Amino acid sequence: MDFKSDLRERKKIVDDAIEELFKDKKGLQRIVVESMEYSMKAGGKRLRPVLLLEACKMVGGNIKDAMPFALGMEMIHTYSLIHDDLPAMDNDDYRRGKPTNHKIYGDGIAILAGDGLLNLAFETMLEKVNSNPNFFDRGIRAMHLISKASGINGMIGGQVVDLESEGKEIDIDTLDFIHNHKTSALIEASINAGAVIGGANEREYENLKTYGRSIGVAFQIVDDILDIVGDEKKLGKRIGSDEYNKKSTYPSIYGIDKSKQIASKLIEDAIESLEIFDEKAEFLRSLAKYLEVREY
User: Fold this and answer.
1) In three state form, how does the secondary structure of 18-47 look?
2) Average pLDDT over residues 90-98
3) pTM of this prediction?
4) Mean pLDDT of the region 19-33
5) Cα 248 to the chain's mean position, in Å?
6) What angle do CA 295, 291, 22 make, to 5 degrees?
7) What DSSP character marks residue 98?
8) For residues 1 and 283, is the Cβ–Cβ distance under 8 A?
9) Domain ranges (residues) in the chain
10) Tens digits of per-residue pLDDT, 222-240?
11) Is residue 186 packed enough to be buried (19+ CB in 10 Å), middle (13-18) or exposed (0-12)?
């Protein structure tokens, strides 16, 4: 299996769907649509939609049913990045190697673009739910998982605690809360929603849930490490922002070596949770390994 080739193939499927999503969405409000489209097409791994589609396929589902939810997840993720980059939050000038949204369109349009993506995410998912009565229960359950993961009990809650913790020494429980909610919640919800849409049984769902939670936290720990030792050109954003903003991270509490060990253990747990899927889980196994070593 050529993992990078398979990842590019899956990413292209998502990119093509994003291209279709923004076709003909213009009018007097076109500036905000252009702003939304700018950030949605600025690159990125498409990790969350790829995870959602893969989980759906693994349990016997159809990725055409899952695509509106995959797009919704990517729109929610992108809106969070637009807002996260704003001067009132992390004040970043570059994202994925390109100027951040507010640097191109200004703070006001960037805020509205984020709002627009959040709203369009749920419009897109609801169109799928409303178009097929037989899909209603699975669709609503998936949307509930996604909305909870992106709200005050998920990503937004994690962002709040992250902001409130800047410049303070925090304990590991608080840091784990931030990681589990700000980053891991959307990754886990991507897997969970895909499993629901695909019709997973209880055992399949719980194992995929363990996978999502494990790689979600590992992903953020690796991000914390890369903010210290990463290559800005490869990452497409500045490094050292955590130290500049006086944020507590796994490396600041445990050191880089111990943080790598913790991430490795989480990746092991993720891979172990996939045993029941046999060869069908080969892509997700390879993805977990990739997330651990990216750009070290």
Assistant:
1) HHHHCCCCCCCCHHHHHHHHHHHCCCCCCH
2) 88
3) 0.91
4) 89
5) 21
6) 95
7) E
8) yes
9) 3-293
10) 988 888 875 555 445 455 4
11) buried
Whether 227 and 239 have beta carbons less than 8 Å apart is answered as: yes
Q: Check residue 296 and give its pLDDT.
A: 44
CATH number of 3-293: 1.10.600.10
Give the pair of three-digit tokens for residue 61. Answer: 């589902």
Note whether 191 and 211 are within 8 A (CB): yes
Q: How far apart are CA 142 and CA 248, in angstroms?
A: 33
Report how far residue 134's alpha carbon sits from residue 129's, in angstroms, rounded to the nearest whole number. Answer: 9
Question: Among residues 27, 119, 111, which one has the least CA distance to residue 76?
Answer: 119
Q: Classify 228 in phi/psi space as left (phi over 0), alpha (psi -120 to 50) or beta.
A: alpha
- Structure-token match 């897997």, residue found: 191
pLDDT: is 233 or 128 the higher one? Answer: 128
Q: Distance between CA 183 and CA 218 in Å, rounded?
A: 10
94-95 and 98-99 beta bridge pairing? antiparallel
Per DSSP, the residues of 136-194 read HHHHHHHHHHHHHHHSTTTHHHHHHHHHHHTTS---HHHHHHHIIIIIHHHHHHHHHHH
Cα-trace Rg, the chain: 18
The amino acid at 221: I
Phi, psi (deg, nearest 5) at residue 94: -130, 145
Q: 263: buried, middle or exposed (CB in 10 Å: 19+, 13-18, 0-12)?
A: buried
